[in-house]
Amino acid sequence: MKADTNTKEIPNIEVVTQKRTKVANLKKNLKRECTALAFISPWLLGFLVFTIGPMIASLYLSFTDYDMLTTPKWIGLENYINMFTEDPRFWTALKVTFTFVFISVPLKLAFALFVAMLFVKPRRGIGVYRAIYYVPSIVGGSVAVAVMWKQLFGLEGAVNGILGYFGIEGPNWIADPNFALWTLILLVVWQFGSPMLIFLAGLKQIPAELYEAAAVDGATKFSQFIRITLPMLTPVIFFNLVMQVIGGFMTFTQSFLITAGGPLDKTLFYAVYLYEKGFTSFQMGYASAMAWIMLIIVAIFTGLIFKSSSAWVYYESEGGK
Q1: What are phi and psi of 98, to 5 degrees?
Q2: CA 5, CA 180: separation in Å to the nearest integer?
């Protein structure tokens, strides 16, 4: 009987040990999760307070008549209806923004890729040149650069001064409806440093053996670029395309400071018109509705790019598509 008693006590000890181990593991995991939560809590708090909170408030205000001085008055879909049926400047702002994005983004990416290919091979002082070409992306969105650009393309600016040296009388570029938007496109293309560095990183990941094998087979440089460089760079192109399209739709500083909407609204970017409605006309409810329309537009274009990626983006790990 005594032996049987000892035999029954052994499993009980194992069960207790297992329970204690589970409890200890749970406490350890809980402590780890609490530590992780404590580290991310500043970001999480900021995200909830400064991102999610304003977005919810903006969605509510888009259905109200709100001038920032009185209590918002619920008007339902009136802001959205007026936007699409009674506001011609809304359609003008959309047209200008779409034109700007569809022209500036391809030009910027093409120029960034061109410069990246020039800098991919190691040369003496190449790091200095890369830094110099990246500087415009750092300062390009600043107020100082916008003011400088305005002076350069003014009627008596440096651009017309150079043209005058060759006997050419240049226009007031930023005040001419035919050229105002192009001056802003040129400014954005000039800020190619960020996508250039991303392209440069992608180019360095392409195996040199592919080019060597193509050269042995008699492929020209152009053929190597079309059949090797571009396919291998498609994931990088995809990333740059998404980021630049989103940034293009949100462009504000250049138009606001250089042309202030431009002659005949030729540079009236969507963000500038939204600002005018919200902080000049004090139609914050209307401006909130405009912000949500822009969010939907950006989401649609981003979704289309992601949807189309299966047809043209090559991933080496998946064997390509």
Answers
A1: -65, -45
A2: 96
3-state class (DSSP) for residue 219? coil
Q: What is the DSSP string of 18-40?
A: HHHHHHHHHHHHHHHHHHHHHHH
- CB of 259 within 8 A of CB of 240? no
Per-residue pLDDT of the chain (321 residues; tens, 9 = 90+): 444 545 444 556 766 677 777 777 788 888 888 888 888 889 989 999 999 999 999 999 999 999 988 999 999 999 999 999 999 999 999 999 999 999 999 999 999 999 999 888 877 777 787 778 777 777 666 777 888 888 889 888 889 899 888 888 888 898 889 999 999 999 999 888 889 989 999 999 999 899 989 989 888 989 999 999 999 999 999 999 999 999 999 999 888 888 877 788 899 999 999 999 999 999 999 999 999 999 999 999 999 999 999 999 988 666 555
β partners of residue 59: none
Residue 74's DSSP bridge partners are: 64
Query: Quick one: tokens of 124?
Result: 């003496």
Region label for 282, one of left (φ > 0), alpha (ψ between -120 and 50) or beta (otherwise): left
Beta strand pairing call for 64-65 and 73-74: antiparallel
Interatomic CA distance for residues 13 and 188, integer angstroms: 73
Tokens 């991933």 belong to 315
Q: What element of type H or E holds 320?
A: none
pTM of the predicted protein model: 0.84
Q: How far apart are CA 206 and CA 183, in angstroms?
A: 36
Rg (CA), the chain: 29
